[in-house]
Amino acid sequence: MKNRLSQLIQRDGRAMFLPIDHGYFQGPTTRLEEPGKTIAPLLPYVDAIMLTRGILRSCVDPSIQKPIILRVSGGTSMARKEELDQEGITTSIREAIRLNACAVSMSIFVGSEHEHQSLLNLANLVNECEDYGIPTMAVTAVGTELGKRDARYLALACRIAAELGARVVKTYYCEEGFEKVVKGCPVPIVIAGGPKVDSEFEVFSWVYDALQKGAVGVNLGRNIWQHDYPVAMARAIRAIIHQNATPREAQEIFNSIKSGKDV
Ligand code: 5RP
Fold first, then answer.
1. Are 84 and 99 in contact (CB under 8 A)?
2. For residue 139, which atom of ligand 1 is closest to its CA?
3. Is the pTM of this model over 0.90?
4. Potential cystine with 236: which of 107, 144, 187, 250 (Cβ 3.0-4.6 Å)?
């Protein structure tokens, strides 16, 4: 367990995960139509990738050395949005071990109709994975209800995930009270980005603020790989996470790489 966690959360206590699991319910998401091509230039700048077994098997070179966070929940689709909270476990622990996963991840839907099912899925997954020393990352999903991204809701979801045994929790950043979300969660928190926003500075600001308030890093996808300059985004965000760059410094790094200068 400690060995796997140390591959995910680096010696500086920080982590940069790149999720490309979106297709498990969204299908061929924009700029993730060919996941292998999307991630190839980004891999040097991330600490781990998060994806499903199907994409790992068919699109990722098995010789890559990056730790794998294997998404093992699913069974729903955007075509039935009202049922998105009804996920099951899709991948066996045996398969996760065979694929050399460093961690597994699954979504929980606190406050939704199928909350109970998703929380028991998490507890059962933890029961299995702990036997093999494999950490579980809980994804506190808000589905289409992004309005739920307030500190009270996120603190509730993160704490419950930790209580059920998640070793890492993925949640969203919120401007008001994020420090309370972190304080109430005894395991490391990483933040996702959500749908792509227009301003890269906004992304740098969330990431920076989340770290200042106690997050260990990010599990951030669309705001990197849907950007026109994904490598510049990845390198700028990496600088915030691992070199304590400020949003302004990250913007300078981004601008330099975008204009073809190296940094
Ligand atoms: C999607 C996920 C993603 O891994 C997570 O939401 C992070 O990606 P993004 O930054 O694009 O929101 O769990 O199901």
1. no
2. 13
3. yes
4. 250
As a whole-number percent, the residues of the chain with pLDDT over 70 amount to 98
CB 112 within 8 A of CB 87: no
Record the tokens describing residue 24, joined without a space.
């498990």
10 Å CB burial of residue 262 (0-12, 13-18, 19+) is exposed
Mean pLDDT of the chain: 96
- Provide the token pair at 256: 């330099």
Rounded CA gap, 217 and 9, in Å?
A: 9
End-to-end CA separation in angstroms for the chain: 36
Count of positions (residues) in the chain: 263
What are the chain's domains?
2-222 (3.20.20.70)
Checking if the pLDDT of 205 tops 70, the result is: yes
Under the banding of pLDDT at 50, 70 and 90, the label for residue 200 is very high
Report the nearest atom of ligand 1 relative to the CA of 196: 11
Q: List, chain by chain if needed, residues with CB within 6 Å of any ligand 1 atom.
A: 19, 21-22, 50, 139, 192-194, 219-223
What residues contact residue 142 under an 8 Å CB cut-off, 6+ apart? Answer: 148, 149, 153, 172
